[in-house]
Amino acid sequence: MIETIMLIVVIFVLSGVFWYSFFYQKEKKLLNRLQQMLDCAIDGELERTEVSEEKYSALENSMKQYIDSSFLAGKNQQEQKEVIQKLISDIAHQTLTPISNLKIYGEILSEVSNENQDEIATILEQTEKLDFLIQSLVKLSRMESGIIAVHSEDTTIKQMLESIQQQFNVKVREKNITLSLCDTDLHVRCDSKWTVEALGNIVDNAIKYTACGGNVQIKVEQYSFFVKIDIIDDGIGIEKEEIPKIFGRFYRSLSVADQPGVGIGLFLAREIIQAQKGYIKVTSKRGKGSTFSVFLPIAKKE
């Protein structure tokens, strides 16, 4: 009797070991196939294999269908980006000559005629606005499609600030605004050309929304991993509920509708800074001015 029971137990144990080994190997093969599918999808080399109808392969089939749809969606999205990029480039190319002609004829009319000066000034202003919009769209499109990429390297902040000061000398003189730059020897890791573009867009807004005789300051402070560049103005300020919206593409507050602009400068600035592993914070109070804090990775010492 005891021998019979022991025999049954041994058979039961061996049977359990056999089925455990069988299903373990099958699960292992399934997981390996799933991992291979994911690796191929990540590398952009998705393999087209036959879909099994076995019940055990339901997970594998579902994963394959999901990867297939994601792969095709990504491919379609990239194709759409390329079409948009080509369209914007074509528009920029086709409008270059008409916009240049409008500027030339507008300036000629302004010089030779003493009449309708307000209308001529409006035409020139709108032409400049159109030119700025098209150029900004081209930059944005090229950056988003990867045609233009940022190349970060060890860069001195002082050199970038001097470039910004030179860029806005005329504007600050016209509005009698004091543009104060701090003296600094700090270095950051960034693409100087694109970073000057981003900082310049923020400074341009600060000057635009600061009254004549006001002040715009640029201060620099070092942290453990970042350098903070503060652009401070005593202008009109921003409502608290509007702060999350100001970096949206083409967003313009109704309170500044009378000011020139297309609402793309801050969006472009944020894209540039984020592409360099930095970020932007804003503090502001209506009627009291704003502070845009740009955080850039500190340059590592060799």
Automatic annotation (TrEMBL):
* Pfam families named among the record's database cross-references: HATPase_c (PF02518), HisKA (PF00512)
Gene Ontology MF annotations: phosphorelay sensor kinase activity
EC top class named in words: transferase
Taxonomic classification: Bacteria, Bacillati, Bacillota, Clostridia, Lachnospirales
Per the annotation, which location comes first and is thus the protein's main one? membrane
Name the domain of life.
Bacteria
Question: Histidine kinase domain location, by residue?
Answer: 90-300
Q: What is this protein called?
A: histidine kinase
| Keyword terms | Kinase, Membrane, Phosphoprotein, Transferase, Transmembrane, Transmembrane helix, Two-component regulatory system
GO cellular component terms given for this protein: membrane
The portions of this protein that span the membrane are: 6-24
* Localization: Membrane
Q: Which InterPro entries match?
A: HATPase_C_sf (IPR036890), HATPase_dom (IPR003594), His_kinase_dom (IPR005467), HisK_dim/P_dom (IPR003661), HisK_dim/P_sf (IPR036097), Sensor_HK_Regulatory (IPR050736), Sig_transdc_His_kin-like_C (IPR004358)
Known catalytic reactions:
ATP + protein L-histidine = ADP + protein N-phospho-L-histidine
The record's section on SUPFAM superfamilies has: ATPase domain of HSP90 chaperone/DNA topoisomerase II/histidine kinase, Homodimeric domain of signal transducing histidine kinase
Could you tell me the EC number(s) of this protein? 2.7.13.3
